Amino acid sequence: MILILDGNNIAFVCNTSQTLSSKKGFPTQAIYGFFESLYHYLDKFSHVDKVMIVFDGGHSIKRKKLYPAYKERDKIKDEEKIKQLHLQMPKIKEMLLCFPIDYFELHNTEADDVIAIFAQETKEQDVVIVSSDKDFYQLINEDVSIYNPVSIAKVRYLNSSNFKRVKGLRPCQWLDYRSMTGDSGDNIPGCFGVGEKTALSIMQKFGSYRAFRKAVMAGQYSPNKFERKAFDDLKSFELSKRLMDLKNTEMVDKPENISKNIKRGVLNKPKLKEIFKELDMREALNDIDSMLRLMPT
Questions:
Q1: CB atoms within 10 A of CB 2
Q2: Per-residue pLDDT, 75
Q3: CATH (domain of 21)
Q4: Would you say 43 and 294 are in contact if contact means Cβ atoms under 8 Å apart?
Q5: For 251-290, what is each residue's pLDDT tens digit?
Q6: Which of 65, 98, 174, 259 has its CA 20 to 30 A from that of 160?
Q7: Source organism's superkingdom (predicted)?
């Protein structure tokens, strides 16, 4: 099994779930939570053959060129927490390089794209992606599953067996569904005025957005006023689909070079202990050996 962690997503979740700091006032909640989570995932998913942690290297230039408003936000809900996260990220990455695991970050390359490429290229091994990002649902198949690190999620582990029961759709339908609803977190528009209920109904009735439009255009189906909005906004649907499609590497700069930029950490226990002490995270020192025993060699 290959375990792929969405580094930014996990750090963000940990950063917002609690507030911790060193005696000198340096924030540590994301750092503490990140490595506590890593320990938990290694313990939960036994028989892991490989661990890979992927970080955002910035926004996709191609997506920004296609849609300049991509990932632009009017207001950050908790600006102080975001500042604290930015302070902690370099330390998390420094510590990861002291573990014998794969680590990836490339300038102007989004973690979503990298994870999608690795998940699809992996053959003859199961892949578990750890992230709360719903965009990854489109990648689910017999070999790829998703584990949601957010504790309030009703079902945290999604795979090809339970996805339709939980979400009401097949994984292959997820992209069309999301292209209608949009993604407010990434400022992707979707079809104007179309919510989750309408999008789900269309997908369950027709299987795809294309089949829905074909039925309406052929006079075989008369859409209600909400479905009509989805039908009328083909332009936004197509734009949103191009922005969110992770199986198509159109938005990735030189995807063939992705695998060449993987960094491999080298075990450095003295350095790890030094950093944990510096951050007054002495309890975490006890977990280092336990974590290393769970890591693949």
A1: 21
A2: 59
A3: 3.40.50.1010
A4: yes
A5: 887 777 777 788 888 999 899 989 988 999 877 767 778 8
A6: 259
A7: Bacteria
- Give per-residue pLDDT as tens, 51-72: 999 999 988 999 999 999 998 8
* Domain presence at residue 179: no
Residue 69: name the closest of 222, 184, 197, 193 by CA: 184
Residue among 27, 160, 137, 170 at smallest CA distance from 92: 27
Range 17-42 average pLDDT: 92
pTM for this model (two decimals):
0.91
Paired tokens of 7: 């580094």
Q: Is residue 152 in some structural domain? A: yes
Pairing mode, if any, of strands 144-147 and 157-158?
A: antiparallel
3-state secondary structure labels for all residues of 158-220: ECCCCHHHHHCCCHHHHHHHHHHHCECCCCECCCCCCCHHHHHHHHHHHCCHHHHHHHHHCCC
Residue type, 269: K
pLDDT number for residue 288: 79
User: Rounded to an integer, what distance in angstroms lies between the CA atom of residue 92 and that of residue 86?
Assistant: 10
- E strands of the chain, at which residues? 2-6, 50-54, 102-104, 127-130, 144-147, 157-158, 263-264
pLDDT at 198 (0 to 100): 97
Could you give the C-alpha distances from 175 to 30, 190, 246, 282, in angstroms and in order? 31, 11, 9, 44
pLDDT at 77: 66
Q: Is residue 205 part of a domain?
A: no
273 in a structural domain:
yes
pLDDT digits (tens, 9 = 90+) for 72-88: 875 566 788 889 999 99
Q: How confident is the model at residue 236 (pLDDT cuts 50, 70, 90)?
A: very high
Domain assignment of residue 84, given as a range: 2-168+247-292
The pair of three-digit structure tokens given for residue 208, joined into one six-digit string: 């795809």
Residues 6+ positions from 257 with CB-CB distance below 8 Å: none
